Amino acid sequence: MAEFQTGLPSSRQVQIAIREKKDVEVKLLTDDLILGKVSWQDQDCICIIDQYDQPTIVWRHAIAFIKPKS
Amino acid sequence: MAEFQTGLPSSRQVQIAIREKKDVEVKLLTDDLILGKVSWQDQDCICIIDQYDQPTIVWRHAIAFIKPKS
Amino acid sequence: MAEFQTGLPSSRQVQIAIREKKDVEVKLLTDDLILGKVSWQDQDCICIIDQYDQPTIVWRHAIAFIKPKS
Amino acid sequence: MAEFQTGLPSSRQVQIAIREKKDVEVKLLTDDLILGKVSWQDQDCICIIDQYDQPTIVWRHAIAFIKPKS
Amino acid sequence: MAEFQTGLPSSRQVQIAIREKKDVEVKLLTDDLILGKVSWQDQDCICIIDQYDQPTIVWRHAIAFIKPKS
Amino acid sequence: MAEFQTGLPSSRQVQIAIREKKDVEVKLLTDDLILGKVSWQDQDCICIIDQYDQPTIVWRHAIAFIKPKS
Predict the structure, then answer these.
(1) pLDDT digits (tens, 9 = 90+) for D36-61
(2) Quick check: E36 and E51 in contact, CB under 8 A?
(3) CB contacts < 8 Å between A and D, how many?
(4) Interface predicted TM-score of the whole assembly (ipTM), two decimals
């Protein structure tokens, strides 16, 4: 994976989700659906905080898609 | 992943789909089928807007294929 | 992924399939089987045209194998 | 994969889990769930010690997510 | 993927299988089992010729394992 | 994949398994479980010898985890 580029549209969208504490759905290649707010991202992972304030560190290579919680 | 190359046929086809607001089907490795219009692409992701105007940020590594909506 | 190398046996075999308009089967990691003729390839994707002249842009990372249509 | 960067948030969270001997759940792309304490990490793998003191060397590319044991 | 290194034990084992026309089983991540003789390899693919002399170009990223036909 | 680094903890653990002829379980992303002794490793593959002395060349990208045979 190339160096993490904060200027990419995808990185910026995730950054906006962090700043605005948006609820998101993260669908994984395992078919797991992780629900919560994004607390941080780095080049390898995205961390989701669920409604019980528990963090899940999700590996980017396992993410299929992210969308606003419907 | 190498630097995003806008000159590649695949990048240009996606760019044309964006410009012409074509409806596409994006089949993922999870077997999910995402339907909608492509709104942007970067080196890691492609964003699809569905009929309710909701965005889904799809990771390229999770894409199996893209085709015009049939 | 390294720069696309047109001199590789695998790239040349795909190039021959394009030039000779051969019917191929492309088996994906999703277990989808895409049938048709290869119209172009680049470092990320291979495009298959089906019998209704519809293109499917297949990501290389999703390809398990390609073989002549049996 | 780029050189292992110990300064990344994700690497530091795993390092904290090692130091504090936290119980974690590691969900894999195979859907296996590995439970135990993290004993070490390097750029390719993370090692989990289960309750019987047996090590499992997990490849990072196979990890979907890590979370504190619930 | 790094440049193809013909000196690696794994590359040499495949090269020996080519030279000695050994029958092999190639298990893919799709769970497909490809049976036949290896005809060539490059950095992206391995080509297997089945008993009807049909080639299957298998992508390395889709290979789980190769073993002598049992 | 970066150059194979023999100094990594994960490479050294595999090296110890080779030297001490330990029985291991290798779980693959296909859910296959390969049992046997590790005979060699390189940057792309790990070779497992089963109880009938048959080699299986396993691709690293297909490995979920390795653990001592229980």
Answers:
(1) 999 999 999 999 999 999 999 999 99
(2) yes
(3) 59
(4) 0.93
Burial grade of B39 (CB within 10 A; 0-12, 13-18, 19 or more): middle
Write out the DSSP string of chain A: -PPP-TTSHHHHHHHHHHHTT-EEEEEETTS-EEEEEEEEE-SSEEEEE-TTS-EEEEEGGGEEEEEE--
Distance from CA of E47 to the nearest CA of F (A): 16
The domain locations on chain A are 9-68
- Helix/strand/coil for E16: helix
Subunits next to F (3 or more Cβ pairs <8 Å) are: D, E
What digits encode the pLDDT tens for the residues A9-60?
A: 999 999 999 999 999 999 999 999 999 999 999 999 999 999 999 999 999 9
Q: Which CATH class is domain C22-68?
A: mainly beta
Assess if CATH 2.30.30.100 describes domain E28-70: yes
Q: What's the token pair of residue F21?
A: 């002829």
CA angle B10–B15–B21, rounded 5-degree value: 125
A9-68 to CATH, choices 2.70.70.10, 2.20.25.90, 2.30.30.100, 3.20.20.450: 2.30.30.100
